[in-house]
Amino acid sequence: MLECTRAALDKKAYDLVALDTAEFTSIADYFVICSGRSDTQVQAIADAVAAHMESFGIRPLAIEGYERGQWALLDFGDVVIHVFYVPVRGFYDLERLWARVPRVELPEPFQTQARSLKTGTEHA
Q1: Which domains does the chain have, with CATH numbers?
Q2: What is the pTM of this model?
Q3: Which residues partner with 72 through β-bridges?
């Protein structure tokens, strides 16, 4: 899950949230939800996550929604990555749907980077 997070943040994904879904569904142990500011950025984030995981010999079991750039889902089995274009994320509101699921406390520097990108500030 952390490697997926690293790749998404490297492409400036923002408002990144990781949910521990293991106790709540058999779909995946973790959902990672993040946003891109354009359809191109959504695709770039999805591409970066897929390429980074492939460098470890891990390929997604499925990729959905990528072509339009409004939402991309990458299913790695235990981890499902949702990359949303901002207005689309608000429409689906996965955080509300999974409100009972605990959020994963990301280690540093992931936590600071996710927070700084959410507020629009960069960190060195």
Answers
A1: 2-104 (3.30.460.10)
A2: 0.86
A3: 83
